[in-house]
Specification:
alpha/beta; 7-stranded mixed beta sheet; 3-stranded antiparallel beta sheet; binds guanosine-5'-diphosphate-alpha-D-mannose; binds manganese (II) ion
């Protein structure tokens, strides 16, 4: 399809006549204007603004959002990158269909992946504009704010502009009291990890200058939903930040993906920012659950010996198997919430966990006995055995039991 000049969105494009007939097949920078490209007879402007849109099951919202973006962003050279996690409702196909009509729209489809934060990160990495915005696909964020965000970043000394529900003029629309309380609580908690003066650190609607993102990208936790908070907590120097009010709208199509899992991932993001530089959060959880397993073990051992009256060997065996089983399920729910095994996979995982932990126990006893023979300080030998055993259990089960698919 050949686009005529009239269809081009940018004023710069209007400087040129309709595309000439000797259109070139290879992209060539226009001699008249260094930022315009001629591709197969189409004049294209390299975008100044990339709008990244994470999607999961948002098919019906895609054309609506694109139409609204084209309207509000007229006059700005923009592009939109939808990052879709292989939505079963066919969102990616809807984006590609739109993209055939409007090449400013692109689809980045990820297969076998989930995660709002990682989707935003990869969308931003796939772009090269100096300004990048993130907006939800479900029309709950007010896209009419985008031109002001863009203008603010270009003309005022700010690095990030945030669409805020919690500054005067903004609001949470029709949220019920419990969601309002949860949001207020999460906002207070987030202060633990960011010193930035910000009323709405949980916002998922913002625009930033590329270098701000590049300065933080390697330190991001990339856990869960809160990409803005992650960027704020990962930046070396606090970004200069401005909040613009908007009213969080009600979702018309599709449903929210906010659930217990998102709340848990938020806790993991906080934990990673607080202790992640000392010990990986996953290992800390694994060790904590392992410690809890010792109590389970002793409880079952006591019951089996004192209440049921089993032999010591039988009681100890029962206690060991019970503790390993409880540990497996706790780790499956919490430590590996993002790779949770279900059905047959869970059973297979449990068996592999038994085998790995048995070898871990053997390593534990072997190391401890060796050290005790060497220097006879019982507690040093004991702790060394535990450390080696748990590191073994953690490392090997992360590879074999909960391998990332
Ligand atoms: N690619 C991808 N992968 N996208 C996802 C995923 C995922 O796993 N989960 C959710 N999304 C997309 C949704 O399709 C939607 O476009 C956007 O991320 C937000 O998801 P919702 O489920 O609608 O979240 P919400 O309405 O509860 O919360 C949103 O608004 C808050 C207020 O601004 C989020 O954006 C929050 O981050 C934000 O704070
Ligand atoms: Mn939403």
């Amino acid at each position: 399809m050949i686009r005529t000049n009239r269809e081009l969105s940018t004023p710069r494009a209007a400087l040129f006549g309709a595309c000439d007939a000797q259109a070139l097949d290879n992209p060539v920078r226009s001699g008249h204007h260094p930022r315009l490209f001629r591709v197969k007879g189409i004049l294209l402007d390299a975008p100044d603004l990339t709008v990244v849109v994470p999607t999961f099951n948002e098919r019906e919202n895609v054309p609506l959002l694109i139409e609204r973006l084209s309207n509000v962003l007229a006059g700005i050279a923009w592009e939109a990158i939808f990052v879709d996690d292989d939505s079963p409702d066919g969102t990616a196909a809807a984006v590609r269909e739109a993209s055939r009509r409007d090449p400013r729209v692109r689809c980045l489809q990820r297969i076998g992946r989930r995660g709002l934060s990682t989707a935003c990160i990869e969308g931003i990495l796939a772009s090269s504009s100096p300004y990048v915005a993130v907006i939800d696909a479900d029309l709950q964020h007010d896209e009419a704010l985008l031109p002001r965000m863009f203008q603010t970043l270009r003309e005022e000394p700010y690095d990030i502009v945030v669409g805020s529900r919690y500054v005067s003029g903004g609001g949470v629309g029709e949220w019920d009291a419990s969601r309002q309380r949860a949001s207020a609580f999460a906002t207070r908690l987030s202060r633990l990890i960011t010193k930035a003066e910000i009323a709405d650190p949980m916002s998922g609607f913002f625009m930033l200058k590329r270098p701000v993102f590049e300065g933080a990208v390697r330190k991001l936790s990339a856990q869960g939903f809160k990409i803005l908070l992650d960027i704020l907590a990962s930046s070396e120097t606090p970004p200069r930040l401005k909040e613009l009010p908007y009213d969080f709208r009600v979702r018309q199509f599709g449903e929210s993906k906010l659930d217990m899992m998102v709340a848990w991932e938020f806790a993991m993001l906080l934990a990673d920012k607080l202790i992640g530089h000392i010990v990986p959060v996953r290992f800390a959880l694994f060790a904590l659950i392992g410690g809890f397993g010792v109590f389970i073990h002793m409880g079952v051992l006591w019951t089996a010996l004192q209440v049921i009256g089993l032999s010591f060997l039988a009681a100890q065996t029962t206690a060991t198997i019970t503790a390993m089983t409880v540990n497996f399920f706790l780790n499956n729910v919490f430590t590996y919430a993002d790779r949770r095994l279900k059905g047959w996979r869970a059973l297979r995982g449990l068996v592999s966990f038994y085998v790995i932990c048995s070898l871990g126990a053997a390593a534990n006893i072997g190391i401890a006995a060796y050290l005790f023979n060497q220097q006879e300080v019982w507690w040093v030998a004991g702790i060394a055995g535990i450390v080696v055993g748990s590191v073994w259990n953690y490392a090997v089960s992360s590879i074999f039991t909960w391998k990332s698919r």
